[in-house]
Amino acid sequence: MGSAGSGADRAAPAAVVPVAVSDSIEGVCRVGSLPHERRIDCDEATDDDGGNHASIVLPRPADRKRCPVARDPLRWQPRLRAKPVVSPMRGRASTCSDTGVRRVLVQRPTARLLAALVVGCLALAASAPAASALITAAPEPVFTKTAGNNHFYFSVEKPSYYTEYRACVVTTHVVPGGEQVLEGAFGGPTVAGSLCTENMAPGTKAFNQFVYSESWVPPDGNTYRVCFAAYHNAGGVFWQTEAQAGGQYLVCPTSTIDRSKPSIGVHMAADAARVNTLSVPVRIDYQDAISPPWQGPNGTASNWVCAAAYPTQCNPSEVSSVCSVPTVPNDMGHYPANLTNTFSCTLNVSGEGHYTVCAISADSAVPDNPTTPWNGSANSATANLSAPACDDVTVDTTGPAVTVTADAASVTTGQLVRFKATAADPAGTSGSYDWDFGDNTGHGSGAAPTHTYTHTGTFNVRATTADAVGNGGSATVTITVRAPGSGSGGGGAKGEGGSTGGGGSPLPGTGAGTWTPPGSPALDSGQVKAGGAATAIAPLAPSAISQAGGGGGTRSATLGKLRIIAPRSFRSGRAQLKLSVTFVRAGSLKLTLTKGSARISRGTLAATKPGTAGFALRVPKTLRPGAYKLEASFQPRGEKAVTKSLPLTVLRASARPSASPSLSSVPLG
User: Fold this and answer.
1) Helix and strand tally (H, E) in the chain?
2) pTM for this model (two decimals)
3) What is the pLDDT, as a whole number, of residue 658?
4) 416-424 and 450-452 as β-strands: parallel, antiparallel, unpaired?
5) 548 phi and psi, to 5 degrees?
6) Rama region for 668: left / alpha / beta (φ>0; ψ in -120 to 50; rest)
7) Which H helix or E strand runs over 623?
8) Could you tell me the CA-to-CA distances from 120 to 97, 124, 235, 243, 591 in Å, in that order?
9) Where are the alpha helices (DSSP H) in 508-626?
10) 474 vs 329, which has greater pLDDT?
11) How far apart (Å, rounded) are the C-alpha atoms in residues 461 and 443?
């Protein structure tokens, strides 16, 4: 096969081409001709002696751009002249400068020779077998990944009824941008040259065909079309192309060279730093210069995806089918429209935390097999793979800690009350507040609103705000409104009760983590009584409860007239599970830690009046990691009990961050 730069790129001297003429011209005598061959026509001309001649017009290779190239097989059809020519056949060449062709003038044969030619052609046509598939090509991948010259595999069968039989090959390729280049052409009417075999022996011959010379490496992005054609010699008179199945004269597999790696990007929650959902959206962006994403079953691609606890960057080692469904249908027929694509899926986590997702993508290039035909067994792991790409996000579902105060806890109707709210959250706060003053009037706004009550009663005032990712938080303060002259109306701002007296002492555990909801005073040792495995301690802020459990965040629940703030997770190795309990009404709380049907620990806490206290439940330090429940039952004084179950995840004891979660523990959906 010719090498790059040969064929169309070389000029060749014009030459007289011999033309075989038989004894008959009535039959259609075909000169083998294929796409990209030189054009062969028949015309009439007169030499210097005035005789009649047949004319063979051939484009000169050097003038390729000026001379037409035939795109369909041609037939040479000499025409019978009324005046016979008895002189011997001779030829003379003349140059046609305006068309860039070389003209060969051949004297007509005698009438006797022409008659014999007709008989011979008709006999050959009558005996020629029907077209059959004598050339087969091994399937070629649409995109080929190869370190060297690409291989194309053919087999050519020579039927036993042909005396002479040859196979020819020619290559064209399309460079990036669409320009088509012809590398060489089939060897002329005599079917000879470097692009054709010698006469083949009967039977089947296999060809391992390089694109060009064996040592040449085709560049990326070029699309190569390698064509095989078969010629047979009909009784030693002329060469004719062998039609294959379907009437085609060429067998031409095609493939595009691609050694380039795709590039990808991973984006969690549209690149947000924090989200307030346990189902985090993930998007993978794909881009490649040559081939689209790998085309697997049902149009899916091949993306390896993993998840881990930040700052670990896990190694993607498993293909995620849910993260491999392309936004643009992954069909080779879309090439090159889907050289960019996106994939969307979801990271599902069990609780708050900082998470990382990493991915690797495969393109469509299949490795070239230098010894055997490609049989479609290659997998995406052998294609061009992108470098790993990662992104991280913090999952935050806990609302801000809100504090509300009033300049007076007891007022009279018509008296102006000034309120104030503050909020704190690691993600930042929105800075806006909504106020419900509890008297069925319009809501207020801002961090320091004022309000005047027009009728008596006890009103629960609530301020609501949100953190930067949309988690809501609220707090309340209670205001008592009396008629003028019915009693003191200028009570302190500590809300209901302030210091209650009763001889009690502060509960243990006070410090930087102490916090009580506005309007709910901290209870002392004379107002609460603990039993079982429980100990009453000073109230704790949500951040202190989370830290005491191992840093997994908190969750809150309401049981009628009781509110609980509990940890979402608890790290084994700690002796106490700490919560905060707000009694809106006096009553008794029973709290049980269970795993399945097994009871691990139980404690009780009773309050003689409304207020907030901490609850420390003693637990074994050897708790096994897994799913547990906090079964809470609260019975307000004089009312029926209300129960609720709070899930709790126990984690393995460790001073270091937990191991990177796998795809099974952090599922992608």
Assistant:
1) 2, 40
2) 0.55
3) 41
4) antiparallel
5) -65, -25
6) beta
7) none
8) 37, 6, 9, 21, 110
9) 542-549
10) 474
11) 10
Picking from 74, 56, 122, 118, the residue whose alpha carbon sits closest to that of residue 241 is 74
Helical (H) or strand (E) element with 384: none
| Beta carbons of 157 and 203 less than 8 angstroms apart | yes
Helix (H/G/I), strand (E/B), else coil: 233 = strand
**Alpha carbons 299 and 279: distance in angstroms, whole number:** 25
**What is the SS3 assignment for 52-114?**
EEEEEEEECHHHCCCCCCCCCCCCECCCCCCCCCCCCCCEEEEEECCCCEEEEEEECCCHHHH
Q: Quote the tokens at residue 635.
A: 């019975």
Say how far apart CA 642 and CA 103 lie, in whole Å: 109
Residue 311, preceding peptide bond in cis (omega within 30° of 0): yes
Spatial distance between the Cα atoms of 319 and 668, rounded to a whole number of angstroms: 11
Q: Could you write out the DSSP letters of every residue in 389-406?
A: EEEEEEE--PPPEEEEEE
Q: Which contacts (CB < 8 Å, 24+ apart) does range 636-643 have?
A: 636/560, 636/561, 636/562, 636/585, 636/586, 636/587, 637/585, 637/586, 637/587, 639/560, 639/561, 639/585, 639/587, 642/559, 642/560, 642/562, 643/559
Kindly tell me the burial class for residue 154, based on how many C-beta atoms sit within 10 Å of its own C-beta (0-12, 13-18, 19 or more). buried
Quick one: average pLDDT of 507-522?
73
Q: In what order do the strands lie in the sheet with 562-567?
A: 534-537, 611-618, 576-583, 562-567, 554-558
**143-145 and 254-257 as β-strands: parallel, antiparallel, unpaired?**
parallel
CA distances from 463 to 85, 136, 434 (A): 117, 81, 6
β-pair type (238-241, 223-234): antiparallel
- C-alpha of 80 from chain center: 69
Structure tokens given for 84: 């016979």
The two three-digit tokens of residue 489, written as one number: 């109306």
Contact yes or no for 199/229 (Cβ under 8 A): no
Report the Cα 158 to chain-centroid distance in Å: 49
Helix H or strand E segment including 121: helix 111-127
DSSP letter string over 406-471?
ES-SEEETT-EEEEEEEEE-TT-B----EEE-SSSS--EESSS-EEE--S-EEEEEEEEEEBTTS-
DSSP character string of 169-202: EEEEEE-TTS-EEEE----TTTT-STTB--PPPS
Q: Is the pLDDT of residue 161 over 90?
A: no
User: Which segment, 216-220, 361-365, 492-496, 504-508, is predicted with the most confidence on average?
Assistant: 361-365
Q: Which of 212-216, 235-239, 287-291 has the lowest mean pLDDT?
A: 235-239
Give percent of the chain above pLDDT 70.
Answer: 72
Q: What is d(CA 631, CA 559) in angstroms, rounded to the nearest whole number?
A: 11
Task: Copy the structure tokens of residue 437.
Answer: 């003053």
118: helix, strand or coil? helix
Quote the Cα angle for 418-424-429, to 5°.
90
Phi, psi (deg, nearest 5) at residue 121: -65, -40
d(CA 57, CA 67): 10
Q: Is 263 exposed, middle or buried (0-12, 13-18, 19+ CB in 10 A)?
A: middle
Q: Name 636's Cβ contacts closer than 8 Å, sequence gap at least 6.
A: 560, 561, 562, 585, 586, 587
